[in-house]
Amino acid sequence: MRITHLARPSRRSALLGVTAAVGLSVAAATLPGVAGAVSHRPTRPTIVLEHGAFADASSWDGVVTRLQRAGYPVVSAANPLRGPATDAAYLRSVVDHIDGPVVLVGHSYGGTVISQAAAGLEGKVKALVYIAAFLPDTGESSLGLTNKFPGSTLGQAIESVNYTLPDGGQGADVYIKPEKFRDQFAADVPADKARLMAAGQRPIAAAALEEKSTKAAWKTIPSWSLVTTEDLNIPVAAQRYMSARAGARTTVIDASHAVSVSRPEAVARIVEQAARTVR
User: Fold this and answer.
1) CB 210 within 8 A of CB 147
2) Average pLDDT, stretch 187-199?
3) Where along the chain do its domains lie?
4) Whole-number pLDDT of residue 19
5) DSSP letter, residue 219
6) Please, are residues 92 and 121 in contact by the beta-carbon 8 Å criterion?
7) What span, in angstroms and rounded, lies between the C-alpha atoms of 259 and 229?
8) What is the per-residue pLDDT across 160-170, written as a single tens digit (0 to 9) for each?
9) Angle CA(222)–CA(224)–CA(227) in degrees, nearest 5?
10) Which residues, other chains included, contact 245 with Cβ-Cβ below 8 Å and sequence gap of 6+?
């Protein structure tokens, strides 16, 4: 495993980078137009970005902008956040409608989803990129991996909302409390942006965090990993452990869990490293 460490940028350069990323409007492909948008075999792989819990597709905006400027077709996919099996099936349907090779990128719980979705698609999915993400093995859950190592304070920052399903069953969605969102999830994101992220966060089904993975595509597909040292959601020790186990090409960066928002240039650079290996 090759490991690179990227230090935190100066406060001025970090703020300029975030401001530029936030200020740009990104036209990401929508699901109905994916097949039509890629009507011929692209010369470069299509990058498919999968967000995680407590975020949405807009969390990739700064990364999308940079990848599109570099000439890559990009799809920032919606994640239902209902459970690894359901979410992986949904993501796989997105991949099935893209012509040519694909690089799958997952943030946080999105790593669990891409690991399951890509299994058996080695001929099409050429690389997996994990951004402050889970790389579970079969039989492991996101919650189990989080609790395996000290360092996460997520349990103190969340609240759940119970609901009744149409069939009469019971369920629960989990949110990060708005007043704790920035400190917990996005400490290096400007306060105004963090407030918007907190207001627009997507809840995850509580059961999704306990559902065990049934497949681990990183065993057969080359992988890259970005480890975030100031992460309060997934302990840095857990990220290092999973990355090493997968033999991922690993970069370590001083950033919060919301690294795709606070450091989009670093994230895009790692995705491009993976994409350039695709032939």
Assistant:
1) no
2) 98
3) 3-151+212-275
4) 37
5) G
6) yes
7) 10
8) 999 988 888 88
9) 150
10) 135, 137
Order of strands across the sheet with 46-50? 3-6, 249-253, 223-228, 125-131, 102-107, 46-50, 74-77
Element (H, E) at 227: strand 223-228
pLDDT at residue 143, rounded to an integer: 97
Which helix H or strand E contains 198, and what residues bound it? helix 191-199
What letter would DSSP give residue 203?
P
Q: Can you tell me the mean pLDDT for 42-67?
A: 95
Domain 3-151+212-275 falls in which CATH fold? Rossmann fold (3.40.50)
pLDDT tens string 98-118: 999 999 999 999 999 999 999
CB 236 within 8 A of CB 162: no
CA-nearest of 59, 62, 51, 120 to 87 is 51
Which of 195, 182, 188, 204 has its CA nearest to residue 264? 188
Beta strands in 51-153 (DSSP E): 74-77, 102-107, 125-131
Per residue in 217-237, pLDDT tens? 999 999 999 999 999 999 999
**Angle at which helices 84-96 and 109-117 cross, to 10°:** 60
- Longest Cα separation, the chain: 53
Q: Indicate whether 16 pLDDT > 80.
A: no
